[in-house]
């Protein structure tokens, strides 16, 4: 199967027709029409086998996750997803792999009504890049730069689940699917993150600053602090933990996974303390206050005893 047959067979009809697509797959470029009064929000993310997911991850999960991590960036901007492109480097045109990959991708794309409008297909080591485009009412996007002294720092959902699944996978060398219900649930959090799109959109106008948690709370919250020129205190005893995480992860291992594990794809938002209750009524996911923005002092992580925990070395970085 050549490149063009592959595109026709798997990608040309992957998603339903959507508004705003003046011209989709098949020409040299797509033509897209944004709605009046909106700004275009653009983000891109690449997933590489062995780096961003265990090599034996199911193709359907890889399809889901590559789109999910991009949608998570749109969520963090308060944007509504509209269109995406897919650049695929594949070692071989394996029909079983491609069918699985497309099914995971399509399930998530249909859920959020986002249309595939183009891409690129080449032979090479497995690597998948998605560029997602969204819209936000002009001037209303959530940024990293608006956190104010006194703001409550909040996170959606629970932290550390995906990182715990990764630890279990490395320890069991790929036998995780044979695990019990909690291990399976944790693995689902790693393979099929749920982008917090509704939450991001609902928080426009309430949150002063937002980021999605991809590299771990410590590193990602630091980006808000740098962009906003503020410090923060986080109470580690308040970090939201799932029941499965609590059951599966020994107490001594929890903090590191929760603050530095990465792959959470939850939102971290800063807002006035008085706005938190109102925000909770608008969200489809729990929102937990984990600390507050301070004037100085960088990021301080406080233990249950009130003592500061050294945390500088906790963030994940490529090339380090
Ligand atoms: P060009 O050579 O002009 O870059 P291509 O031959 O790479 O065009 O692609 C032909 C058409 O197929 C374009 O519309 C492109 O966006 C689309 N396309 C290529 N690969 C993919 C893919 N993996 N998913 C979706 N659309 C794709
Ligand atoms: Mg091309």
Structure description:
The chain has helices at 3-11, 59-76, 95-112, 161-172, 181-191, 197-202, 217-228, 243-248, 251-260, 276-282, and strands spanning 21-23, 31-32, 38-48, 80-90, 115-123, 127-137, 152-156, 209-212, 231-235, 267-271, 287-294, 299-302, 308-309. A 7-stranded mixed beta sheet has the order 8-10-7-11-9-12-13, sandwiched between helices. The chain has a 4-stranded mixed beta sheet with strand order 3-6-4-5. Strands 1-2 form a two-stranded antiparallel ribbon. The chain contains 10 helices and 13 strands. The mean pLDDT is 94. By secondary structure, it is α+β, with helices and mostly antiparallel strands. Residues 7, 11, 25-28, 86, 88, 116, 118-121 line the site of adenosine-5'-diphosphate.
């Amino acid at each position: 199967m050549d490149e063009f047959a592959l595109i026709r067979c798997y990608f040309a009809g992957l998603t339903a027709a959507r508004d705003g697509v003046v011209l989709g797959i098949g020409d040299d470029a797509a033509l897209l029409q944004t709605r009046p009064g909106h700004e275009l929000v653009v983000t891109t993310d690449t997933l590489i086998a062995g780096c961003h997911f265990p090599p034996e991850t199911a193709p359907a999960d890889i399809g889901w996750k590559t789109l999910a991590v991009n949608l998570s960036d749109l969520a963090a901007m308060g944007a509504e997803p509209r269109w995406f492109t897919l650049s695929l480097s594949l070692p071989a045109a394996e029909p079983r792999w491609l069918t699985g990959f497309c099914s995971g991708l399509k399930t998530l794309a249909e859920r959020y009504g986002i249309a595939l409008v183009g891409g690129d297909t080449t032979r090479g080591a497995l690597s998948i890049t998605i560029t997602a485009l969204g819209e936000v009412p002009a001037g209303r996007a959530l940024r990293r730069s608006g956190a104010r002294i006194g703001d409550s720092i909040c996170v959606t959902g629970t932290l550390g689940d995906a990182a715990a699944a990764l630890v279990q996978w490395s320890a069991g060398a790929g036998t995780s699917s044979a695990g019990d219900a909690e291990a399976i649930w944790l693995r689902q959090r790693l393979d099929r993150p749920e982008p917090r799109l509704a939450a991001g959109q609902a928080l426009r106008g309430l949150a002063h600053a937002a980021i999605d948690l991809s590299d771990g709370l410590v590193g990602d919250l630091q980006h808000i602090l740098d962009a906003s020129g503020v410090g923060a205190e986080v109470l580690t005893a308040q970090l939201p933990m799932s029941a499965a995480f609590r059951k599966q992860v020994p107490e001594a291992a929890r903090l590191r996974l929760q603050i530095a594990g990465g792959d959470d794809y939850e939102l971290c938002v800063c807002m006035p303390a008085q706005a938190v209750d109102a925000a909770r009524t608008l969200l489809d996911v729990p929102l937990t206050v984990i600390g507050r923005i301070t004037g100085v002092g960088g990021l301080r992580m406080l233990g249950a005893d009130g003592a500061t925990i050294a945390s500088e070395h906790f963030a994940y970085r490529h090339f380090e």
